[in-house]
Amino acid sequence: MEYVIEVRNVTKEYKGRVILEGINLKIEKGATVGIIGANGSGKSLLFKILVGLVKPDSGEVYIRGEQLGKKADFPDRVGILINAPGYIELYSGFQNLQFLASIQDKITDEDIRNTMKMVRLNPDDKTKVKNYSMGMKQKLGIAQAIMENQDIIILDEPFNALDYQSNREIKAIIKKLQKEKRTILLTSHNFRDIDSLCSEIYAIEESHLETFTEEMKKYYLDEE
Amino acid sequence: MPLVRKNLREFFTGKIWLLIIVFSWELGFTLHAEGEFFSFGEFLLASMSDHYYTLYFMLPFLSISLYHQMNENHDLSVVRYKRYGYFFLEQITSVFLIVLLYVLLHLIVAAFIGLKVEKLTDTFYLMAEDHEELEVMSQYFSRPVMALIFLVIFLVVGLTLYGTIPIILEHFMGKTMSITVSLFLYLLLVVDLHKSILGMFSPGNFILFHHALASGIPFYVYTFADILILAGILWLMSKYWWKSLTFRRPHLPEIFGGVQQWYIKTLFTIRNAMIILVITALSVITKIIFGNRMTLPDLLIHQFWGMGSGYFYTREFLDMLLYNLVPIYLLCVFYQRAKRDSSLSVVIRLRRKSNWVKEILKTGSMFCIIYTLVTIAITIILGLVFQLKPAGYLDWKLVIGDSNAKLPEIVPTVWEFFVSKSLELIFLFVLILLIDSFLHNTAIAFSLLVVLHGISILPFQVLKYNPVGVAFLARRYGTFSGDGMKLGIMAGILLLPIGAGWILLRYFRLNQMMEEN
Fold first, then answer.
1. What ipTM is given for this predicted complex?
2. I want to staple A74 with a disulfide (CB 3.0 to 4.6 A). Which of A52, B237, B241, B462 is the partner?
3. Contact B79 A85 (CB under 8 A)
4. DSSP SS3 for A72
5. What is the CATH class of A1-77+151-224?
6. For the segment B226-283, what is each residue's pLDDT rounded down to a tens digit?
């Protein structure tokens, strides 16, 4: 079995409070994994640990078999969308993606255009990002997370504050990425979003990562 | 280096014109006053080593712009680098190149304006008065342009370090601590420049070339120190970028119970304390640095002098506004929040609406008393730090001259000021509550209070009894010639409206107070 992400016994405290404790997780290539949990349960923190933005107090993270923090601080070909990403507000969407792409210089402007079209953003739109709607910002976030052909994509609350139409569009994009056999990690407040997209679901409960049970499913569906 | 390109583009936007305008205006002024005395080289040197401009404009402009720009959320960029160190190296390179262009821009502006000097030569004439920096530099360099080359290198390295410090402070310590420490360092820089406290370690020696030359230490030692510190910062960031230094506030014992404890926590915050400390310290330091020679009693009188009535002096008026309106502004913010949060559930637990007002007034009054106490303490401490003589008068003796007015005994004066000022601030707070109960708008209430401060400047004798600003020593002592006011009258002027205000609030405006906009 090939695991592209492996988390071994990760623990993280923040301001004297244990947020994550003894987290173990193995994700196969091409899987879509959903993580569910209350506000402040540590979902975003776990994602930040997976991409190297936060170091765990103990435990290890392996991306494609390589331990994070050894050869590199940040893994290669991992796309992220965590919290509100920091865009250059005075640039257009295309200019923002152009800037991010120029850091690794792996793709052309044409690739950026194609990715923007894929997430239904107009690459020729000169609107500055500061004037983007929430949905447009989320789509731009997804575009930067996939444009360099990243095969692991980590999306923290991609459906947050979206209207019905944008929610459907983003779901369609994620389904397309699934067909391309990319590995996807997702969080959402809404259990139905996760349920409709993910092959595996976990829940963070009292600092621990638990496999999602039928009982939990019933609870979340009742809550919603 | 895409990040460097982006950073340069972001820094050199429209706001840079503001800088050019201020610098050109300042140079134009120098040219007009002293243009005939300078050679072209000397003019460039004098322009680039003006420590007032460097300290009060060039450095803050650079630091604030860099701080905002570099501390944005960079997660999306960072993960595209292999190592955090590579990312940070690009950030430091950006700071260096921004500073280099920033300094060169100043040089170009100075060169352009300097073309109007009479002697277009590269010679030290040393004819301009009050330009010791030129004299210092002429001892080390035969021609101004040589000095200028070293000055530019020195300034660029120094400013790169100063621009980097707030960025790493924010990274490791978070926003509040970063701003606090940076402000403290800046204050230290300003203070030390006027009253040398740190000697050869004076922070100014790391930016101002002529100060480094005059320090007795070879100037390149400072440049090497800057470079070493920058290298240390780079190493630290590459190795420990993921660490954070957080300070947990000690848990204070809960002296007050219930809702008052909650209100005290809302009002007595670190942020409010910092605002009061920084503003008071700046006000005191400015008086020490820019005033005449003075003793500690001189300083205390200056600090609490405020403004009398029937005349207008800008400095005195601003002093009065600053002293009174800082706590009142903080109280307005507090009150607005308390009102917003005063849901029915809070009032029900307090049993009566009047209890809610009582708690608000108690907390606000405590704040007024502590504010007055703190400002007195800061003035005394800073006076001692600046080694002012603890007794006697120098400056006020000059002010009074040969008049028959007596200088006040300082201890009773400060005590009286403390009592009357606490009362005055409490009165102002009651006034805010009253106005707000009619207008339901704390911002307007605050604006009205500003206007009430201005009333005293009108030429009517009776306005000296205006309770707004009555506690300032200017009213207490008049002009030292007998038209002042007795403490008893002052206390009466304040206690009566406080009592009346309380009765109005308690019995007539209670329901309106709790109404939302």
1. 0.80
2. A52
3. no
4. coil
5. alpha beta
6. 999 999 999 998 888 888 877 666 665 656 666 677 778 788 888 888 889 988 998 8
